[in-house]
């Protein structure tokens, strides 16, 4: 077994991955690493009795730079993990394990097919069964896992110490609870997440963070809630991440590997939520962590609307391919597309739908042409476009069509938005004699841009 001396600045994960790459996958220790690290310890001080003058030892809490030994190992159930032992009294130890690795191994043993996504699942053949497997990870399983490896590994408490009652008790130093939502359209997911960041930069304010953690936050007075409440956005390359802080805990949200929205709540001190640190409190911590993830998403739900709207708009305004059939776009602002949408609104209430000859009479005046100018071939082409975009559907066993619910909503919104908002507003902006709230707002905007340009020239 190798004893590795970690160098300053060296990533321990990189060393471990190199060992895992050549390991045969069997349960056992990969290697032991050594590093000097600062840690809380107890020392003795010499104190003097003010009456007798006699000296005596006194225990004090302090910090010291001491050796730590990292035992990196592979477990059949939990996968890669490490236990770190401190070599100075009170001989603290830390176990780091990954619940996602445990879940993947249990799924593989149970024969549940899945596709991994780094620290999560990209897809699964039996999601409900996988969820039941994940729900089985509890405090007793973790306790048995730790006791199993403490019985195998050398550590500061000998057998005689343990018989005398000196043994490790397990508490939760840090717990991370994550929710990974895999997206069927990753590009739309990126649009959504960027919109989330813009709309929720104030989520760290005390009045809003209380919604996420379901905790009352007092801002002033003797019972003011301690800690920092803020929102931060970090950018690693081109991938931004949103960080929301509450006391010593935080929620992190980011676009994972371009394929999923990842929301993680990390609890660094269980007492932030009035919960004890002992391992048996894990169910209560799980409830807080997963609830915080869901609550953050609920707060952000309004930010999802632009993504849904972008998708609905693209399905109409972009070309589509349905069952191998390609249909050109019904572009917003195109006169013929808007005439078609205006015409189908008329037929929404017809119980038997409409035929191509029915739409000819309504479409021709909207286009400013005689009905005879609309050939059967052209009408068939237009009806096919409407059908493949999902705006109309064919009545079974007939040559008639009916307007779909999506078709009515899209047709009404496209035509109203263009006729009553875009066209009229542009008319105001391009009329030099108009004096409305809109024209005054744009005049102010132009003035501010001119001032900005002038200042930039002076600075140059």
So what's the CATH class of the largest domain?
Alpha Beta
Q: Order of strands across the widest beta sheet?
A: 1-2-3-4-5
Query: Number of folding domains?
Result: 3
Strand-residue fraction?
25-35%
Short account of what is shown:
This protein has helices at 12-22, 99-110, 127-135, 139-152, 159-163, 186-199, 206-213, 282-299, 305-317, 335-346, 356-367, 376-388, 405-430, 437-459; strands spanning 3-5, 28-48, 55-75, 79-86, 93-96, 114-116, 121-124, 175-182, 230-236, 239-246, 249-256, 260-267, 320-322, 325-327, 392-394, 401-403. The protein is α+β, with helices and mostly antiparallel strands and 460 residues long.
Task: Write up this protein.
With 460 residues, the protein is of the alpha+beta class. It has three domains: 1-97 and 138-169, no CATH class; 171-317, Alpha-D-Glucose-1,6-Bisphosphate, Chain A, domain 4 (2-Layer Sandwich); 334-427, Arc Repressor Mutant, subunit A, CATH 1.10.10.10. 41% of the residues lie in helices and 25% in strands. The chain is built from 14 helices and 16 strands. The strands form five sheets. The protein has a five-stranded mixed β-sheet with strand order 1-2-3-4-5. Strands 8-12-11-10-9 form a five-stranded antiparallel β-sheet, with helices on one face. Helix 6 (186-199) packs across helix 9, helix 10 crosses helix 11 and helix 10 crosses helix 13 (405-430). The radius of gyration is 33 Å and the shape is elongated. The model is unreliable at 204-212 (pLDDT under 50).
